[in-house]
Design brief:
Layout (H helix, E strand, L loop, with lengths): L28 E2 L11 H8 L14 H11 L6 E4 L1 H13 L5 E5 L4 H9 L3 E5 L8 H8 L3 E7 L11 H10 L5 E5 L15 H6 L3 E6 L12 E5 L1 H10 L7 H12 L1 H23 L4 E3 L5 E5 L8 H10 L2 E2 L1 E2 L8 E5 L3 H16 L1
Parallel strand pairs: 1-11, 3-4, 3-5, 5-6, 6-7
Antiparallel strand pairs: 2-8, 7-8, 9-10, 10-13, 12-13
Length: about 350
């Protein structure tokens, strides 16, 4: 007789990452996971390779070298940083540390799927606040949160919409929540945004003890395979996260590669410049095909398709896959008529537009 897990665990639908296979095609173009089109920094790759002779050793449990490198690069305090196995782990650690069964968690309508998983793993109640024009709505979040929410998760910018809310709106959100509510700002795509009204949330976390900001090395730094992220908050929150994380949660290769990556500002600048050029291209070209594209500040675009038989998102997904182009269906987010496409290389972006044009003409 099988041993039953805790109530609610079997209700969880496991997170499904972006596909990487197209049947019958040996080397498809993967544009489904928002990976960096330029790869990763050569310096980061070299640093990772250099760890090979030391793989028999445990890594530094506190990732001290990496935290100090992040602090220096970002103008922060190393003691206010904790590193994790991707920002996903840090989000889960926050749930483990602060959520009790029955607590309430709130996110925006099209927020990142991991927030729901965190809540369900902890037996918490999960509420989504309606968005306006695919953008987080502070008033709706405040109304949904009320006075009894334990955690509000806000992806800013948001995946899969690619939209953001300005810093003054984030502050208005924090000011409107009770101090007993923890505001988690997931800024995985922050480096791609250079609009003057945007902030990742670091300054807010510096000022308040009820804010934590999570960041990742998977996007701008191109280290998705190493699973590396970090969080910034005031010391009481950081102390709690250190108490619930594993003793060696960040591996040696990730520490060394991350340290090199955060110092390679030239690679970061090239990645941002590439993204600026090609996200604009995709929006213009795909919009010119008669498809709505949500304005994005990230390294992907959200493409909306009509309900017309033969022209739906599912039809487009099947057609593109048959041509070896893999993008992401977002039905699990409540967006059945949309697909999310990552910014690729110049060649990949042009192939995607050409294939979509053929699909719309067919």
């Amino acid at each position: 007789m099988a041993i039953d897990p805790r109530a609610g665990i079997l209700d969880i639908r496991p997170y499904k990452p972006g596909s990487s296979e197209a049947p019958g095609i040996a080397e498809p173009i993967k544009l489904s996971s928002n990976e960096n089109a330029l790869g990763c920094s050569d310096k980061a790759a070299e640093a990772m390779k250099a760890t090979a002779p030391r793989l028999h050793l445990y890594p530094d449990g506190g990732a001290t070298k990496l935290r100090e490198a992040i602090a220096k690069a970002e103008g922060l305090e190393a003691e206010n940083i904790v590193c994790g196995t991707g920002s996903d782990e840090l989000l889960q650690l926050l749930g483990r540390a602060y959520l009790n069964p029955g607590d309430k968690v709130v996110q925006s309508q099209y927020g990142f799927l991991v927030y729901r998983l965190v809540a369900m793993q902890c037996g918490a109640e999960f509420v989504s606040a309606p968005e306006r024009d695919y953008r987080s709505d502070v008033d709706a979040i405040l109304e949904a949160a009320g006075d009894d929410t334990k955690i509000v998760f806000l992806a800013n910018p948001n995946n899969p919409t690619g939209t953001y809310i300005p810093a003054d709106e984030v502050r208005r959100l924090r000011d409107g929540l009770p101090t007993s509510t923890l505001l988690v700002l997931d800024a995985a795509y922050a480096e791609f945004v250079h609009n003057p009204d945007y902030e990742a949330g670091i300054e807010l976390a510096r000022e308040r003890d009820d804010v934590v900001v999570t960041r990742t090395f998977s996007k701008i730094h191109g280290l998705a395979a190493l699973r590396l992220g970090w969080a910034y908050a005031q010391k009481p929150i950081i102390d709690v996260l250190h108490r619930v994380r594993g003793p060696f949660n960040v591996n040696m290769a990730a520490i060394e590669a991350g340290t090199a990556a955060i110092q390679d500002r030239d690679f970061m600048q090239r990645s941002v410049a590439h993204n600026d050029e090609w996200v604009a291209y995709l929006r213009q070209q795909i919009g010119g095909l008669g498809l709505e594209v949500t304005p994005s500040v990230c390294n992907f675009v959200l493409i909306h398709f009509p309900d017309t038989p033969g022209k739906t998102a599912a039809d487009a997904d099947a057609y593109l896959t048959s041509k070896g182009l893999i993008i992401r269906g977002v039905e699990p987010y409540g967006l059945p008529n949309a697909l999310r496409a990552t910014v690729g290389t110049e060649s990949q972006n042009r192939q995607l537009v050409e294939a979509l044009a053929d699909f719309m003409r067919a």
